[in-house]
Amino acid sequence: xxxDFELVRLILMELEGEQQVDLSSYTRDQVNYHKALVxxxxxxxxxxxxxxTHRTDVPDAAVLKRLTWEGHEFLDKAKNEKVWNKAKSIITxxxxxxxxxxxxxxxxxxxxxxxS
Length: 116
Hints:
Elements: H1 5-16, H2 28-40, E1 44-49, E2 61-67, H3 69-78, H4 81-93, H5 100-115
Helix pairs in contact: 1-2, 1-3, 4-5
């Protein structure tokens, strides 16, 4: 399954609980897979349960309990639509692939640009 940073952002926003988030355009497998990625990235605490009988790359259940400090830090920058779009634009303009590390740097740069 391909990583979808828009879905990662939505999952973080949902977990924070400050906004209503619509995940209805995503399948259960997509959401569970990305919740596992959120946990693996260190953005949230929770539990991921993989099936023992079929595909093991997609969890059959993913329960995230709370954001970690790192998750809050990332989301505090990423939840602003203008900052989020600017960060993605910076990465694209540089010809780079979207990654967590690139997004962290670009989000910080976007905030700096908007503050200056």
